[in-house]
Amino acid sequence: MTYRRHREDVLVRRNVTVEAIPSGEPIELEAGQLAQITQALGSSFTLLVEGQLMRLKGVDADAIGKTPPETITAPADLPIEELEPLVWETLRTCYDPEIPVNIVDLGLVYRLAFEPLPDDAHKVRALVDMTLTAPGCGMGEAIADEVCDKLLALPRVGEITVNLVFDPPWDRSMMSEEAQLALGL
């Protein structure tokens, strides 16, 4: 599979807060501003605005004339043995806004575990250890927040803890073969 970058020009239709890439700093885009979509994967859009990359959350897709991306759904009475595959599927919808590969195939998720919640026999705490492609990446918090939001939306997940870890340090060898092919490596 070869990744081809396709850019689409869009007009910002309403004021909206985005995150600067790679710092993660919130920035307000104003209605009438021009932007280019450089990546529309998972549940967010990467925009190029006046030479700066920005991340727009999918819930704000209407600000650029798009519909919010679909989310993964599952029945409320999901059997516990079906939760882990659903969590992995959900994690595959989370993307680094600069790289067109999901965080699982990038090799950023080091551990996934579940603990029962003592006060609710039907819910669990999901524990995720993940890393970033670079320790100084300003988007780490935004990616971790996206993981939290998506996993908390799943049935049976009552709490989520995402630990950003840097040992072992990430390198290209941690990527899946599919990810390496998609990036031409």
UniProtKB/TrEMBL annotation:
Family matches, as Pfam families: FeS_assembly_P
UniProt protein name: FeS assembly SUF system protein SufT
Taxonomy, superkingdom: Bacteria
Domain MIP18 family-like: 87-162
